[in-house]
Amino acid sequence: MKSLDYIKIWLKENLSAKRYSHSEGCAYRAKELAELYNLDTNKAYLTGLIHDCAKNFSNEELQDIIKNEIKTGFDESELKNPKTYHAIAGAYFVKKYFEIDDPEIIQAVRNHTIGSVDMTLFDKIIFLADKIEPNQREEKYVKKIMKLIKKHKGTTGLDVALLKCFEETIKSLVKRRLYICPTTIDVYNVLVENVGDLLEEE
């Protein structure tokens, strides 16, 4: 794996200042959540830092990389909304540019946009850290999600928080008339079945 200093320099050169600030915030929050759930805090920090490494490449560049270099491991539905491209390419980039071969990191980067019905605890932490990092996200929303995480015991808090995030994401996509990947709907439905009654109490 490349050094953390190398990775930070690469990110600063390939992301906008705002996106890099978001990435730092995500790294901070991922480390905080990992500590709360007794996971590897250094790994969480690194994953949060690099999760958006492909974000500032153009849609055309990302589509070309996905179709001509990555080729497999994605559903065609993910190519119907350009906002999902960077997660597919990002999982590829962390191997190509940072020489990271940890499957847990690669999977969490891959799952941080549309999610997965079988997300691991680590996946969930990175997904949520992206949504509630302190540098660029709205403070009121961040506090609301953090409250849900801390209110419920164990991983239930993460699932309730995830449900709220997916609910808000779907509302936003509908409002903007953007394509919603079937996987996102599937994850939402699973969360509703598992913890929907808990969110209704909020």
Question: How does this structure look, described?
Answer:
The chain is globular. The longest helix has 20 residues, at 17-36. It is mainly α. Helices cover 67% and strands 0% of the residues. It has one domain (4-199): Hypothetical protein af1432 (Orthogonal Bundle), CATH 1.10.3210.10.
List keywords for this structure.
single chain, about 200 residues, mainly alpha, Hypothetical protein af1432, 10 helices
List the helices and strands and how they pair.
Elements: H1 4-14, H2 17-36, H3 41-50, H4 59-70, H5 85-96, H6 103-110, H7 121-131, H8 139-151, H9 156-175, H10 182-199
- Assembly context of the chains: single chain
Quick one: CATH class? Answer: Mainly Alpha
Q: Give helix % range.
A: 55-70%
Report the strand count: 0
By CATH, the architecture is named Orthogonal Bundle
Could you tell me the mean pLDDT? Answer: 95
- Number of individual domains: 1
Let me know the largest β-sheet: none
What is the N-to-C succession of helices and strands? HHHHHHHHHH
User: The CATH topology, please?
Assistant: Hypothetical protein af1432
Q: Give the name of the CATH superfamily.
A: Hypothetical protein af1432
